[in-house]
Amino acid sequence: MSESCHLVIFTLDDQRYALHLSAVDRTVRMVEITPLPKAPGIVLGVISVNGMIVPVLDIRRRFALPERKTGLGDHLVIARTAKRTVALAVNGVHEVIERPAGEIIPPEAVLPGMEHVHGVVKLEDGMVFIHDLDGFLSLEEEQVLDAAMEQERHA
Question: Boundaries of each CheW-like domain copy (predicted)?
Fold first, then answer.
C-alpha cells in the first residue's frame, strides 16, 4: 500500500503552488493587515487569528515575483511551521489534491539548489511546487521577526 500525500493548491499570479495539508490550519479571505515595525522585509504585517497575533508572509518577495498589493479577493493560508503559526498572502486557494508520495519529485531532480521547495508534483495541466515552510525564513529573519513580535506584544 503506497503512502499518499494531501496537498493544498494555491496560486500567485498564474502559477500554482502547494503546501502539505498537514501544515495548513485553514484558509480565509483577506483581512486588513497591520504593519509590524522592524519586521523582516518578507513580513507584510500581522493579523489576529482567534486572539493570537500571526505574521503574514509575502511569499512573492521570497520568490522574486512582481510586487502586488493585496486585495479583498485574495486569501490567507494559515499554516504552521516548526516554530510558529504564519499566514501566507496568496491570490487564491483552489483545491486539496491527493497524490501517491512516490509521485513527488525531489527538487534537486528538477533544478539543483531550489530553496524552500519540498518537491514537485506533475498534474495533467502542469507542475506544482510544494513548499517547505520550515525553511522559509532564514535564521536571521526568524530572529528579527521574534524581536518584532515581542516588541508588538509589549506595545
Answer: 4-142
The amino acid sitting at 1 is M
Task: Enter the DSSP assignment of 110.
Answer: H
CATH of the domain at 147: 2.40.50.180
Largest CA distance in the chain: 53
> What phi and psi, each to the nearest 5 degrees, are found at residue 90?
-135, 160
Identify the residue with better confidence: 77 or 112. Answer: 77
Report which of 16, 8, 21 is spatially closest to residue 127, judged by C-alpha positions. Answer: 16
The residue behind cell 493570537 is 52
Query: How many structural domains are present in the chain?
Result: 1
Q: Which domain holds residue 110?
A: 4-153
pLDDT per position as a tens digit, 20-55: 999 999 999 999 999 999 999 889 999 999 999 999
